[in-house]
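Q: Here's a chain of 159 amino acids. Please give me its 3D structure as tokens.
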Amino acid sequence: MIQRIQTVFLFLVAVSMILVISFPIWQQVNPDQTQMVTLNAWSLTTTDNTSQEIIKSEGNIYLGILALIATGLALFSLTQYKNRTKQMFLNMINSLVMIVTLALIIYTSHQANAEINPDVNGAFVLGFWAIFGGMIMNLLANRFIRKDEMLVRSVDRIR
């Protein structure tokens, strides 16, 4: 049924991955406070703090694509409420996609940090923490799907 609690959790997974796409993930300022590097789902951008013009921009389209895949998987899993085993499998794949996305974000931010200011770590912002929220919601959805499946099996055993 659509009105189950796991449906809400799967919808929140999709919302959190849209937050990853929409908001910055990581930011760092160089030691002179003249340039700022910002990582979002689509690019790694270096801007000048005084004039706010873009100095350098590198495409990181793979982060955005992985976030879109995780969003699509969550929404597709939401519609598969009649087949709970398929729904759990889709959520497992979605967890793997989010872990790969998280690993690539950490790797990319570490590489960018080494270039601009290796002494001080950058700040992870909303887009980064939204992935953790999505992972937690995905785990909760899987837990409630598994609970429903066990309940259905126990009722079938009684009959």
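Q: Can you summarize the key feature?
A: Helices lie at 5-22, 61-79, 84-116, 126-158.
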